[in-house]
Amino acid sequence: MKRVVVALIPYLWLLGLFLVPFAIVLKISLSDVAMARPPYLPQFSWSEGISTFLSQLDFENFTFLTTDDLYWKAYLSSLQIAATSTLLTLLIGYPIAYAMARAPEQWRAILMMLVILPFWTSFLIRVYSWMGILSQEGYLNQLLLGLGVISEPLIILNTKIAVYIGIVYTYIPFMILPIYAALHRLDNSLIEAAEDLGCSRAKAFWLVTVPLSRNGIIAGCFLVFIPTLGEFVIPSLLGGSGTLMIGKVLWEEFFNNRDWPVASAVAVVLVLILIIPIVLFQQNQQKQQEAEN
Amino acid sequence: MRLSGFNITSLTLGFAFLYLPMVILVVYSFNESRLVTVWTGFSTRWYGELLNNQAFLDAAWVTFKVAALSSTLATVLGTLAAYALVRGGRFAGRTLFSGMIYAPLVMPEVITGLSLLLLFIGIGLERGVLTIVLAHTTFSMCYVSVVVSSRLVTFDRSLEEAALDLGCSPWSAFRLVTLPIIAPAVISGWLLAFTLSLDDLVIASFTTGPSATTLPIKIFSAVRLGVSPEINALSTLMIAIVTLGVIVASLISKQKFVQQQQRERQIDNRTR
Questions:
Q1: N or C: which end of chain A has fewer CB atoms below 10 A?
Q2: Chain A nearest C-alpha distance from B82 (Å)
Q3: CB distance B88–A3 less than 8 Å?
Q4: pLDDT for A44
């Protein structure tokens, strides 16, 4: 009996504050916009019954998403930004994880802590710290102008490049940690064997090290890609008005345009897009667990 | 093992990349000039202005209140949820339950925020500190539950069973045996929930009302227009607090570890 109560409290909490709210989003995404408070007309009420609901059901908010350029461009550009920055994070994170795994035993704990420490610092502040570096009269331009590398200040802030930098900077621990975990377990004698059998250093790396750290790479990529797709803070602080990302569109649709049905439809489509990488990620994790047992 | 030149370079560059932006922020928070990027001289002027800025102090207090309340609630709920998931066996709706624990971890914040706001408006709850606390509790209890259940999985169940055999009630077995053993995980879950709440901008922006402004909301609206010296000072203070907290926490856990080893050695000697 007590067991039931123990499970029931968090269960009911999540039903009420996670599942029901999402059902409301779904419902409002099917409603019509109205000049009222709240600013939408419900598509159905329970008193009218299911059949009236089905007969009146239209997906006009969703059709609207496909007719207005803004939305599908924002989805595409989010996907592109998330994919590009995941790749960049991998390229920069892998050598760091590799070096950590090769570092002397007594350094590793400290190196791990140094990777995790930024996690505890405010995300907002970490993104903000790049505004001063990348702006036109920022520290990077001052340095490059001072060294005579460039004669005109570079325009980086408020472009996609700044968004890439921001994403790589804030999400790189998510990439380093799983790759490090995979490389750390790697048996060194395998690489030695490959070298003994005539592989060059680089070839042994490609043929032995990379395939054996595959699971870490996959996990790291998903851990960066999934949260980046719906990112709001980074594009709005570093990306300027020119960078379209769907999280930002949803925010603006809701707060600036007060169009709740369209904002809800944007949210529903985003969840549908996210389900694919999330399911793939889950499968990868399960496979890995089975392999370990 | 010795590090090759390549590995040393990637470590140096990697950690420079991770830490330089924050170092620059801290250094320039002591800059006298209002033009943040031009160094004119050392001064603590912006810290003074910050401490005289009532709006920031109010926001800091609201943020602290929200974080303390929501992390404590989330720890209780998350621990219960983890216990139910790991120890509950099979019960009706278990799949839905574990799905609801994991989904908020991957749900974009804009969607969590939007859906909770629509709920609060739907049930006519006035928005303010209470609604932010409810929202933060909901997503951070899932993190707590993941942290605690990873500890519960590796835990030796026979200890609990022994307590039950020796006449403990299920509740006192939980209190006297299970809780002390999972305590480190519960504490780190609480700390995680606390920092998640301190840090959150998006969900708080959706679920707050005019009466409650948190520090991240305040910072966000200040820096949207560009870099500001007060925010640099504020950031430095926050970085300092976090660093101090992490150092203290790791010292405490190290001390605990040493103590435990000593105790184990004593027990070893006695049994020998």
A1: C
A2: 9
A3: yes
A4: 46
